[in-house]
Amino acid sequence: MNIRESFEEKELLELSPFAAYSRNSKGRDVYESECDIRTVYQRDRDRILHSKSFRRLKDKTQVFLSPQGDHYRTRLTHTLEVSQTARTIAKALRLNDDLVEAIALGHDLGHTPFGHAGEAALDAVCPEGFAHYKQSIRVVELLERDGRGLNLTWEVRDGILNHRTSGTPHTLEGQIVRLCDKISYIHHDMDDAQRAGIISEDDIPITLRVVLGGTTRERLNTLIHDIVEHSMGKDCIQQSSEIAEAMKELRQLMFDNVYRSQVAKKEEKKAKQMLTRLYEYYSDRPEKLSKEYQELIRRGEKKERVVCDYISGMTDQYSIHKFEELFVPKAWSVY
């Protein structure tokens, strides 16, 4: 018995009967021989972690566009916080935390520069629309590794695709990530908004603070414990009705006071205009795309979709650089 097989045996002995066992994975679209050390979900986690798309998350907006300060979250820190919160819950429920980690690390790989503002811009101009959860799947199935994709297992791809609020993950591990995505962004966006002076604890109704806690840390602790308590030994991941309703109200408060705030979003219109101009430019001049994206068009991918692939893969700063390079006049000299 090799190391991987010993891990698989350990899962059968220690994990919940509702867990997604590595040995029982539905597998990959393209067959690969098994690793003698890592389980299939451990391999998926490593492939995502070492991907170029994952590294670029460090320079992509979470909520605040070009924040002045080193402590505001980025898309990468959001991803890591989702992963940690989800793994904590998975371990408590004796579910497969390797699968949870792989889904969490990959769930936002398809996000655009400038967060949801960038997503809205591409969705408005692309004839086929644009959604980051679909783009995340496109990244792992096609765009990474020079058009070959990462060849991830079915369970990881299912969790990535269904991490949105309206999604229906087929594994409990995917259900955990779906819920922890919301928990994490509510928690850390509240923390960032308080740091920025946009909102304070006094703006949170006392009824919500009594139920969830009086600080961001207390609220996160309450949400995690509630999920563990109400999901233990069950075939679904759930919250108590009281905590679920309170979290829903807190999320609405964030939309009303932060996500739609003029302070937080004052540069959003500029970002949308910039990405729209870039989309129009490359749609008219696909020969200006990077070689790997030109190759995708030659392989039969629709030009408009490939242009979205290219722009959504940019970091905030790279998209600004390309815009300036293409549209901003530069000083010149005869010398």
Overall SS class: mainly alpha
Indicate the overall shape. flat
Main sheet properties: none
* N→C terminal distance: 72 Å
Extended strand count: 0
* Count of DSSP-assigned helices: 17
What portion of residues belong to β-strands? under 5%
Low-confidence stretches: none
- CATH architecture assignment: Orthogonal Bundle
At the first level of CATH, what is the class?
Mainly Alpha
Number of domains: 1
CATH fold-level assignment: Hypothetical protein af1432
Give your account of this protein's structure.
The chain contains 17 helices and no strands. The termini are far apart. It has helices at residues 3-14, 40-49, 52-56, 75-92, 97-106, 115-125, 132-147, 154-161, 172-195, 206-212, 216-231, 241-259, 262-265, 268-284, 291-298, 303-312, 316-327. With 335 residues, it is mostly helical. Helices cover 62% and strands 0% of the residues. The chain has a single domain, classed as Hypothetical protein af1432 (Orthogonal Bundle).
